[in-house]
């Protein structure tokens, strides 16, 4: 019975990674997602087991600090090791998505002028996150790194390369846990962002220089909701430009595959955005940190579609996160996607705050016509994404494939490969395959 299920799975996984998956569909019409793992080691024994189980995708992470410990050149041993790892996965028949590793900057990058993001208090992120949005010096270092990365790996065989701006490798500015001040931190007060130091190409300085969100005054007059909206639009839009800039560098280096953008959470809900602008960004309307992180997917998804040179793929990292746990406990449940979600998500009478992160973010990608893949957050309590309110990892393994199907994802990659091959995790490759095939 299991063997028959695996054969059927392998047959269903034929085809390209994201072809024809821009909009959610009913379960009867939706194509079967492709399946894979995050943080693949490409170890031969694991590859053999995964391929026999019908898995087809491996997400492999590069590390900037290991590849470029000093400026101006790549560490040849580290580069050759990464290329060999990728090649093992490719030769085993896996499609490889490479994480660029920009979230792991070497120490010399942090020492560059205006290298770190700064909030309105002059603080820097606790994680030491580098300013990949506004700073000219760190951007130039990143451009050089990405160009060398493409040359160091078999880029013409890759399915995609992931890019991001955060310390987690995702879209966004630092989150509340990175600031020391909770939700009320805004990361646009470095010299470049305020127009007093060299600015990364393509970016604009703050439209209201010196204005601090929450302040009722600016430049001798009263601050307005319209002005706050323009400031926030600039703040959020700068993220889109930063992603587009990384994609342009990859294209200039000769990479023609998919650019994957890992997208956390659901972003700012429309009603919350209105409240936030009306209160001049003083903290009202900040539900989960999305405002301070600049995550306005209602506006950003169309912006990504228009600005990032394609092909581009949205990677939703919230498949069966803590919001899904809460949403499926409601009556009626609000955790999974429905065909009318793209239109309903912007209806003022629809209580989208009850929806899971996956459901709302998926609706915004669909509105923009962007293809979507996804992954689960990982074990609860892990710094990699899972929280204490998330499902236990075994439940994520069991539930996430169903969410991937219901939401019309082109592919789903399970976080993390290591957990499928380590007894202490309590989950196995057989558990994952059983959830995919319905034989669990």
From TrEMBL:
<keyword id="KW-0732">Signal</keyword>
<feature type="domain" description="Glycoside hydrolase family 42 N-terminal">
    <location>
        <begin position="60"/>
        <end position="129"/>
    </location>
</feature>
<keyword id="KW-0326">Glycosidase</keyword>
<dbReference type="GO" id="GO:0004565">
    <property type="term" value="F:beta-galactosidase activity"/>
</dbReference>
<feature type="compositionally biased region" description="Low complexity">
    <location>
        <begin position="369"/>
        <end position="386"/>
    </location>
</feature>
<protein>
    <submittedName>
        <fullName>Beta-galactosidase</fullName>
        <ecNumber>3.2.1.23</ecNumber>
    </submittedName>
</protein>
<dbReference type="InterPro" id="IPR013529">
    <property type="entry name" value="Glyco_hydro_42_N"/>
</dbReference>
<feature type="region of interest" description="Disordered">
    <location>
        <begin position="368"/>
        <end position="394"/>
    </location>
</feature>
<keyword id="KW-0378">Hydrolase</keyword>
<dbReference type="Pfam" id="PF02449">
    <property type="entry name" value="Glyco_hydro_42"/>
</dbReference>
<feature type="signal peptide">
    <location>
        <begin position="1"/>
        <end position="30"/>
    </location>
</feature>
<dbReference type="InterPro" id="IPR017853">
    <property type="entry name" value="GH"/>
</dbReference>
């Amino acid at each position: 019975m299991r063997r028959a299920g695996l054969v059927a799975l392998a047959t269903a996984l034929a085809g390209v990674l994201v072809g024809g998956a821009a909009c959610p569909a009913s379960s009867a019409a939706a194509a079967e997602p492709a399946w894979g793992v995050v943080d693949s080691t490409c170890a031969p024994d694991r590859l053999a087991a995964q391929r026999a189980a019908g898995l087809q995708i491996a997400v492999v992470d590069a590390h900037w600090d290991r590849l470029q410990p000093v400026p101006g050149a790549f560490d040849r041993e580290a580069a050759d090791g990464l290329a060999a790892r990728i090649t093992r996965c490719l030769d085993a028949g896996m499609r490889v998505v490479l994480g660029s590793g920009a979230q792991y900057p070497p120490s010399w990058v942090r020492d560059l002028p205006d290298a770190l993001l700064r909030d309105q208090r002059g603080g820097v992120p606790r994680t030491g996150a580098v300013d990949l949005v506004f700073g000219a010096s760190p951007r130039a270092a990143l451009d050089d790194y990405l160009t060398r990365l493409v040359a160091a790996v078999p880029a013409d065989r890759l399915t995609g390369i992931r890019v991001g701006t955060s310390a987690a490798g995702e879209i966004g500015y630092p989150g509340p846990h990175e600031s020391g001040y909770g939700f009320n931190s805004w990361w646009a007060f470095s010299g470049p962002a305020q127009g007093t130091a060299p600015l990364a190409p393509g970016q604009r300085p703050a439209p209201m220089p010196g204005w601090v969100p929450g302040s009722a005054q600016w430049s001798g007059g009263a601050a307005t909701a319209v002005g706050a909206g323009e400031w926030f639009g600039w703040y959020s839009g700068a993220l889109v430009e930063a992603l587009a800039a990384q994609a342009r560098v990859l294209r200039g280096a000769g990479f023609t595959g998919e650019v994957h953008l890992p997208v956390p959470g659901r972003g700012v809900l429309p009603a919350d955005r209105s409240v936030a602008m009306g209160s001049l960004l003083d903290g009202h309307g900040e539900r989960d940190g999305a405002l301070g992180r600049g995550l306005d997917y209602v506006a950003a998804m169309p912006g990504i579609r228009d600005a990032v040179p394609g092909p581009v793929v949205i990677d939703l990292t919230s498949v069966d996160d803590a919001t899904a746990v809460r949403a499926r406990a409601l009556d009626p449940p609000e955790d999974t996607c429905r065909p009318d979600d793209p239109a309903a998500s912007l209806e003022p009478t629809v209580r989208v705050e009850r929806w899971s992160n996956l459901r709302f973010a998926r609706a915004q990608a669909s509105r923009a016509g962007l293809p979507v893949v996804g992954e689960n957050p990982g074990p609860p309590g892990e710094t990699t994404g899972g929280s204490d309110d998330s499902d236990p990892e075994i439940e994520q393994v069991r539930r996430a494939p169903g969410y991937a199907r219901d939401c019309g994802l082109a592919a789903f990659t399970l976080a993390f490969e290591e957990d499928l091959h380590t007894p202490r995790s309590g989950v196995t490759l057989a558990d994952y395959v059983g959830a995919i095939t319905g034989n669990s």
